[in-house]
Specification:
The protein has four helices and 21 strands. By secondary structure, it is α+β, with helices and mostly antiparallel strands. The strands form five sheets. Strands 3-11-14-13-12-15 form a six-stranded antiparallel β-barrel. A hairpin with a 2-residue loop joins strand 18 and strand 19. About 10% of the residues have low confidence.
Length: about 375
């Protein structure tokens, strides 16, 4: 049997000098990655400025919206029928005084009626004078054989009837004069002409609208307030209305509607406003009703972020890490907002930049 060859000695793995630089580079790279990971965790996410909530006297206001309307609109017409409009004396937008002529109707027919009524009255007065004289003579002859008692009574009765006809003629004369006065369509009060339907030459009909007057030029804001806030509003409260592209206008609550609309569950607040070109009847504007003054904690409006219908702020702790807090807000005053709940008393709030932060982020403080 042949003898097996002797076993070869096991070869040791020797790292070649050419591979040393690559291995060393790999180890250095791995160690460098670990250092970057640690430094990223400790690097501030943002440099922020912090503020504390400030105690301030604020005006609690109830936001609302509604239409601008006339305080009272007066429909101006005439009680005459069948007459034509001779002239128009006022137009839309004119400011008029009580008793000022707005239109003139044709007067020919009315003047003829007046002349006829004057003639009838004169005739009735003459007849009454004659009947009165006859009655006086009858009284003088009463008891004599010249006139019977029946004839005396007839003359006295005729005198009374003649006086009654005079009264009727005077009433017709007064009516004719009144109808002639109606030929001048006049403003029933001071105000501003809001609409004109009268046209020269048109035939008027009793009760038809010729003009529409905003009485005394007064306007009002009919603010719609939801049921939950309705009971807080009282007459005399101050109001600020914001017209489009104009300065705010101040007003005052005149009265509150006694009930709510059953469909919308809203009540109407009637607010007196001064006459101004920025507000016209028919506009729909927004505003706020001032419910009263109180003290509250306010923070900059820029510190609040909104998400899913909720409001949040970021506060910075002693380790310079931020915590996200859900807060409840109240009144907005210029560039500040009241915080009613959710913010600790001594919290330092991130003034701005909350949209770029996450809960637990490390931050740097502006100014050290």
């Amino acid at each position: 049997m042949p003898t097996p060859p002797p076993a070869l000695p096991r070869r040791r793995r020797v790292l070649r000098p050419a591979l040393l630089p690559a291995s060393l580079s790999l180890l250095l790279a791995l160690s460098g990655c670990g250092e970057d990971a640690v430094s990223d965790a400790d690097r501030p996410a943002l440099t922020v400025e912090t503020v504390a909530a400030e105690e301030r006297e604020i005006t609690r206001a109830l936001p609302a919206s509604g239409a601008i309307g006339a305080w009272q609109e007066v429909i101006i017409g005439t009680e005459l029928t069948g007459l034509r409009i001779a002239s128009i004396e006022a137009d839309v937008g004119d400011t008029v005084r009580r008793g000022q002529a707005l239109a003139q109707l044709e007067r020919g027919t009315l003047q003829s009626e007046l002349a006829q009524a004057e003639a009838q009255r004169a005739e009735a007065v003459a007849a009454a004078a004659e009947a009165r004289a006859n009655a006086d003579r009858a009284r003088a002859l009463a008891g004599r054989s010249a006139l019977s008692a029946r004839e005396v009574d007839q003359l006295l009765t005729a005198s009374i009837a003649a006086d009654t006809r005079v009264e009727g003629a005077e009433a017709q004369l007064a009516n004719a004069r009144r109808r002639l006065g109606w030929a001048t369509v006049k403003a029933p009060d001071d105000g501003v002409i809001a609409a004109r339907n009268a046209t020269p030459g048109a035939m008027v009909v009793s009760g038809s609208e010729l003009f529409r007057l905003i009485r005394q030029g007064r306007i009002e804001w009919r603010a719609e307030v939801p049921e939950r806030d309705y009971a807080e509003v009282r007459a005399g409260m101050g109001v600020v209305v914001q017209p489009l592209d104009a300065e705010p206008v101040r007003g005052e609550v005149r009265t509150v509607s006694p009930g709510l609309d059953p469909g919308t569950r809203r009540g109407i607040i009637y607010v007196d406003l001064p006459a101004t070109p920025a507000l016209r009847p028919g506009m729909f504007v927004s505003g706020a009703i001032e419910l009263g003054r109180t003290t509250g904690r306010v923070i900059p409006l820029s510190a609040v972020t909104t998400r899913d219908g909720s409001h949040y702020v970021f506060v910075v702790d002693d380790a310079r890490r931020v915590r996200e807090l859900k807060v409840s807000l109240g009144v907005t005053v210029n560039d500040s907002v009241e915080v009613t709940d959710g913010l600790p008393p001594a919290a330092m709030v991130v003034k701005s930049g909350g949209a770029f932060l996450r809960d637990g982020d490390l931050v740097a403080l502006a100014g050290g």
